[in-house]
Each structure stands twice: as C-alpha cells, then as structure tokens.
Amino acid sequence: MRKSVIKSMIWGSLAVMLVSLLIVTIVFFYTVKTGFEAETYKDMGDFISHVKPITQMSLDFSTSRMMKLFDESMQQFSHYNKYNLLITTQNGEIVWSDVDILPSQARPHIMSAIGKLGGKATIHSSNLLSGIYPGRTITVGEIVSSEFGKDSWMIFCTKKVPSPSGQYMKLLLEILIMELAALLFMAIFLYFFSRNITSPLHKINMALKTFAKGDFKSRVAYSSANELGELALNVNNMADSLENFEKIRSSFISDVSHELRTPMTSISGFVEGIIDGTIPPEESDKYLKIVLSETKRLSRIVNDLLKVSRIESGKQALTRTDFDISELSKIVLLNFEKEITDKNIDVSFEFQTDRCIVNADRDAYTQVLINLIHNAVKFTPQNGYIVLKIEESDDKCLFTVENSGQGIDKEKINFVWERFYKTDDSRSSDKSGVGLGLYIVKRIIDAHDEKITVQSTPGKCTRFVFTIALS
C-alpha cells in the first residue's frame, strides 16, 4: 500500500510535469521559429527599402548609363548582404539576378510569384521561388511602379532558412535532453520528498490500526513543525485520551459493580436474617434502618447515572426562573444537618445581602449546591469548618463553597471535572459515590454559560467558586 502511494504520487507528478514541459517546448519552439522568421522578414524588408530607390530610377530612366549604375549597385547590395535578389518585369522577364538562371526554366516560377504578388504592394511567403532557389526559403516581394506610367518591376528578396530537420530539430533535441534531465532530477526529488510524507502517514496508519484493535498504547514516533507533525501529535493525544477513557471505563465498571454489590449484599443479608430468624425480632427495626440507608445509597447512585445519561444525550432542558440563591443554599444545607452535627462541623455564612435574586434553572442549581455541599461535608474532617459565601459583581453572583480538609493535590486538580474520577484512589475517604458529582456540576454550569473554578491548598482547604446570572 505504501509503495503504491509513492508510485502514484511520483508518476502523477511526472505526468503533469511531462505534459507541462511538452506544452512549454512546443510554445517555445513555435515562438522561436516565428520570431526568427518575423525578424528575417523585417530585415529583408529593410534590405528592399535600400534597393528600391535605385530600382525606381532605373525603371524611370532606362538609359545604358543608368542600367550600368543599376547593375553595379545591385552587385554591391548582393555582395554585402546574405539574401538572394531577383528583379523581374511584370511579364516575368529577368531584369537582374545575383545567380545564373535559365529564363525558360525560371519563367513559370517567376510568373507564379508575380501572380501571388498580384495587386499587393508587398508579400511575405515561404518557398515562393523554390524552383529557382532549392531548399526551404522565405521570400519578400514588392512592386516598384514607374512614376511616368511605364511598366512595373518586381523585387524579390529570398533567404534560405533551416529546414525542420536541420537547425530547428537540433534546438528541439537540445531542449528535450534538458527536459529529460530535469524529469530525472525531479523523479529522484519526488521519491525522497514523497517518502518524507508517506513515512509518517504509514506510522500514523499503523498506530490507528492498533487503536482499532483496542490497543491504545501505540504512539506515532514523529515530531516536526509542520502539518504532519501536528497530525501525529493529535493522534498521540487522541491515544492518550482513549487510553485514559479505557482506564476510566474499566475503573467505572469496577467501581459501579462494587458500589452496587456492597449495599445489595447488605440488603440481601439483613433481609434473609430477618426472614429466617437469624436476626431477633426485637432488633429488626435496627437492621431495617440499615437496609433503608443502603437502599437510599443505591438510589443516589442510580439517580447520578441517570442524570449523566440525560446530560450527555442533551435531554436536560433548562427552565430559567428568578429565585433567591441564598435561601436555596440554606434549604440544601438542612439536608446534611445530621452529618454536620455528627462531625461537629462549624458552618458559617458570608452573604453580602440577605437576599440574592438570580435567574437560572432552580432545580439544576439545587443539584449543583447538593453536590458541592455534599462533597464539602464528606471531606471535612471532625471539628472542621464549611463556609458558604455570596458576592455580587456586575451582573453576576459569585457563590463560594469552602471546606477544611486534606485538599486536592495540584497534579490532580484538573481532573476533578471528569466522569468517574475520584481523587482518593484508595477509596478510604470516599465510599459513597462513583465520581459523578463534580462532572454533573460542571455540565450544568456549562449549560448555563457560566463558569466554575476550584482552588485547593493541600492539607488545609478546598474552595469551589461558581457564577450565576443576577436577575
């Protein structure tokens, strides 16, 4: 597969180059050829312009002395120029020629040339007098008329030019050789250039194949400051995310299995004990309360899972209303009165005003407060403290939940918003959840286009601050 890609790139590029070079060669060759002939026609026209005055005088004054002067002048022109010169009458008779021509043989060709000249003042033509001058030629013909109404003479200036099999073909061959050399160089260049492209692509492709098999440990060993380097980096980042997600998934299955199995085992054991008489009737109420507690714990876990499902499916619609966030926080706090009392936690309020009216989904922010305060109560040590603080800034309410405790390590603080993430891997201090509370909080606040931040001082305290729009 890799070789076919390289070959396709090379052959495709070479084909485009070959066609382009052929087009350039044809255009260049045609331009050189026509440019050369155009320049030659111009020089020949200039030559005739020098010949024409003496020819005009000889036509007007055909004396022996004038004709002698005319002959000498034509010989001079012919000697110092590279053109063949032929002057004839309009009847095809040769007036002057720089080469020996048999009139009988030349007359048909001359009359044909005169016919092509016709009434035109000047003509440019190829092989016009090929019967007189063998080989490939170009000719410029011009009529010289007498000013006294006498006959006209025809001036034909002819030059031999290279045939296509001559100088032009040599030039074309030289161009083609240079083009072939350029193509060979380009083929070598494209081969190594394409290898630089396809090699990292091959590595990326092999890595993706391993990902498809469920192995997310493979990484692309390629780093460069270009698009392929960025692609390789993104693939490696994706692998990190997939590997982390796989670990979270496995951990989640293990955690959920453990969390569900533990209360279910307790419930099953206590109920069986009551039914079969192992637990005395006078102690039934005690163990039924434990069963109720475990049932509520199961309910909380299932409710959290259902909330995550609704959030991720986009089915949780927001119903914004005006309500007092300070009053709501006090109501939520009452739900944890027993735990707070048992741990002798000092709870304090730092509210700027007695009432702080905000606009948001009351039920959603109730869940936010429940989760944050529940975490605060759970991780606050015996005789610790919790602070609820409300500040108003511009059009926002800043709500802070702070609690004393071990805090969160700096390297773990960025992961607290992820699903199923629990900062305490040993599960020693967090036995009542599966790491969904803060994930739900973050998604609810994001849905309101608000922000939440976390700050923690290990060994001292943790502080969560979220915003909510004022009414």
Describe the structure.
The chain has a 5-stranded antiparallel beta sheet with strand order 2-1-5-4-3. Strands 7-9-10-12-11 form a 5-stranded mixed beta sheet, covered by helices on one side. It is rod-shaped, with a radius of gyration of 51 Å. It has helices spanning 2-60, 64-79, 103-117, 167-212, 227-276, 284-313, 325-334, 337-342, 362-379, 437-447; strands at 84-89, 94-97, 122-126, 137-145, 152-160, 320-324, 346-351, 357-361, 385-393, 396-404, 452-457, 461-469. With 471 residues, the protein is of the alpha+beta class. It contains 10 helices and 12 strands. Among the domains are: 2-168, Beta-Lactamase, CATH 3.30.450; 318-469, Heat Shock Protein 90 (2-Layer Sandwich). The model is unreliable at 425-429 (pLDDT under 50).
| Global morphology | rod-shaped
Average pLDDT number:
81
Oligomer: single chain
Structural class: alpha+beta
Range of helix content:
55-70%
CATH 4th-level superfamily of the domain at 2-168: PAS domain
Radius of gyration: 51 Å
Number of strands: 12
Write down the secondary-structure element order.
Answer: HHEEHEEEHHHEHHEEHEEHEE
Please write the CATH class name of the domain at 2-168: Alpha Beta
Largest sheet: 5 strands, antiparallel
Strand arrangement, major sheet: 2-1-5-4-3
Strand fraction: 15-25%
Low-confidence spans: pLDDT under 50, at least 5 residues?
A: 425-429
Number of helices: 10
Termini separation: 63 Å
